[in-house]
Amino acid sequence: xxxxxxHMATVTESNLAYEGSITIDEAILEATGILPYExxxxxxxxxxxxxxxxxxxxxxxxxxxxLNGPTARKGVVGDKVIxxxxxxxxxxxxVNFTPKVIRLDEKxxxxxxxx
Length: 115
Known about the structure:
The protein has a single domain, classed as Barwin-like endoglucanases (Beta Barrel). The chain contains two helices and nine strands; from the N terminus they run βββαββββαββ. The chain has helices spanning about 25-30, 90-95; strands at about 1-10, 15, 20-25, 40-45, 50-60, 65-70, 80-85, 100-105, 110-115. Strands 2-6-3-5-4-7-1-8-9 form a nine-stranded mixed sheet. A hairpin with a 5-residue loop joins β4 (about 40-45) and β5. About 25% of the residues are buried.
């Protein structure tokens, strides 16, 4: 099941020299419940790339969305991405489950919820 989604994030940095992962503003992580080191899937709306990596918490309130290491080859600064987190649930827990979904503005500030 989809557990959380960050919709329309803007890539602010691409750092090939880093070991790997995606850095996400800690305030955005808190709003969705996504944890540092959690596996996420990223879909780049500009080039169609879909890839998985893990999360590193960035400075709170910075708006940072940074593709690190090999993921830096999957997008460039200014690209719009959607970040997904999934969870396995027992069937009976799926009935009333609702994911945490947020939509960001062009400066990666929380602009509301998304579907």
